[in-house]
Amino acid sequence: MTVSLRASSQARTSQPTDDNRTVIEVSGLTKRYGEVEAIRGIDLAVHAGETFGFLGPNGAGKTTTIKILCTLANATSGSAMVAGYDTATQRDAVRRNIGLVFQDTTLDTYLTAEQNLRFHAELYGVPAGAVRPRMRQVLEMVGLWDRKDSLVSTFSGGMQRRLEIARGLLHAPHVLFLDEPTVGLDPQTRTSIWAYINELKGREDITIFLTTHYMDEAEHCDRIAIIDHGKIVAIDTPAALKASIGKDRVQIHTADDRAAIVALAETFGIEAAMHEGAVTFSVAAGEQFVPRLFADLDVQIGSVSVSRPTLDDVFMSYTGRTIRDAEASGTDALRQLVVHMRGRR
Amino acid sequence: MVTQTVTPAADTAVVESIRVAVPEPGFRHDLRAVSIVWRRELIRFRTDRLRAVTALVQPVLFLFILGTGLGALAGRALPPGMDFKTFIFPGVLAMSVLFTSIFSAASIVWDREFGFLREILVAPVSRASIVVGKCLGGATIATFQGVIFLALAWFAHVPYNPVLLLTLVGELLLLSFTLTAFGVMMAARIKQFQAFMALTQMLVMPLFFLSGALYPLRGLPGWLAVLTRIDPLTYVVGPMRDAVFSHLNVPAFEQHALAPGLTWAGWLVPQWLSLGIVAVMGLAMMAVAIAQFRKTE
């Protein structure tokens, strides 16, 4: 039940169909707002079908990058190709092939959900016959089909975000951009938004590019880029990034803690100690280690917990500070940036 | 950390394959864009009845309160049996679309503040179709507003003559279009809603007062005569008053005194030119607005 999409014949001919084709290609991208350098030389490549995350503190240049990729801003230098088209010279072609969900809502709250989608369908030139079934499909995907006739102003924040995701998918884009898709939502709603995004990855043949400053959201991505001060400091899979900064923390409760510590040292060569009333040690790829632990440790284990490195751990290892520090010091630069952007559009 | 396992198994089988092919840009696509932007204006207007009512308050005040009050004084200068309300009706009718037209452009500023403008600007359509749709939408709802006010013609002793009514509606449409284009042009530059409203308030009254809506454009001091000729509203109020007077039984010399027609240094500007000026101004301002929206950050 893959939804077949694909725009023009031109798009079809210009793009090979192998899975490793590059959907987003950015090289040497920079953007200045007056004195402020929002991004300072970004290179990246995103492959078809990938979910790519842009992780960094507020003001790091995430939104600016997305704006350039979505043709809403011009780069100062460098180039960006999306779905095979140049974001500077082939704007409309790029726009036809992307869907967008912005950080702030861009719905008309005085219209109904259906009217919002209808507006989008007409603007994107979705063929008249396909509008209705496709609208139903995307609304059902986000669980809003029964609310299609309600005014958007009656929707909760989470429902509005879901509606925006549905709208972004309406014209069956190659790439869906999600700028901080869950910011400002409560944890439960964040979870449900991610359930929809993951479901959509299963259903649609689509590449997702998202920005976030939550590590747990980066977990949903196939690869993430960590961005700080307008530069990418690391690109890899979440697992590899975490592995690169070191080890997971494993805590076990055992029948005999002292024996367990000795056994860990003898069997695995791991140095363990008592912390918070549990046998605690660090190991790479902690989750994979647990089965071995059960198989080979002679001491009976009561419970196991594996903690992943946090965003702060990963971020700190690449930038030398925590993300909270980064956001605090970034506030001034951000403020300047906001002033500049307000002055424009 | 939440790992959501989604099983796109049985339940997704009901989802049929839906082919969506977004077309290459073209005239048809642009027309659809114009149409949907236009339709959105109408939907918004229809759901906002309060706006329609409040927009009617000011012209009604001018016609009935000012018209009646000043009529006692100005009546002496009018031919016997003629109501001052009749004289100012065309001007106040023009005023009834003035606010609605310019305010309809304010929705662009509003949309910018509330984000919806982004949804529009990132769409793969020409900026021209968006601006054209917006101008036509504003013109339509303003004209509709004018038509509601036009229904009050009886109170001003203006006859419900079909030819007259059609002429007036046509002129209202032209005026509304030009005023909306003016508003859209300003909205492309002004980013704050408050600033836009303040500017509008500041401009609307001078436009109205200088248009000759309340007095004949004859025997005015030089400075005022010049100002009235600069006001675009003048070029519609004149033809509208001519249309009304041609359907009244007013002696020719009286008509000449009250609706002398617009002159440039003594040369009588023909109606077609007068209306043509308004149309050209509207198109020119629309072109400027399109150029403004083409710019990217």
Tell me, what is the CATH class of the largest domain in chain A? Alpha Beta
Relative strand content of chain A: 25-35%
Taken from the alpha-carbon principal axes, the silhouette of chain B is elongated
Low-confidence stretches of chain A: 1-18
Strand content of chain B: under 5%
* Helical content class of chain B: 55-70%
Q: What features would you describe in this structure?
A:
The complex is a heterodimer of chains A (345) and B (297). Chain A is an alpha/beta fold and 345 residues long. Chain A is 40% helix and 25% strand. Chain A contains 13 helices and 14 strands. In chain A, the strands form three sheets. Chain A has a six-stranded mixed beta sheet with strand order 6-7-8-3-9-10, sandwiched between helices. In chain A, strands 2-1-4-5 form a four-stranded antiparallel beta sheet. In chain A, a hairpin with a 2-residue loop joins strand 1 and strand 2. The longest helix of chain A is centred in the C-terminal third of the chain and has 20 residues. The radius of gyration of chain A is 23 Å and the shape is globular. In chain B, helix 6 packs parallel to helix 11. In chain B, strands 1-2 form a two-stranded antiparallel ribbon. In chain B, 42% of the residues are buried. Chain B is built from eleven helices and two strands. Chain B has one domain. The chains are: A alpha/beta (345), B mainly alpha (297). Chains A and B meet through helix 3, helix 4, helix 5 and helix 7 of A and helix 1 and helix 4 of B.
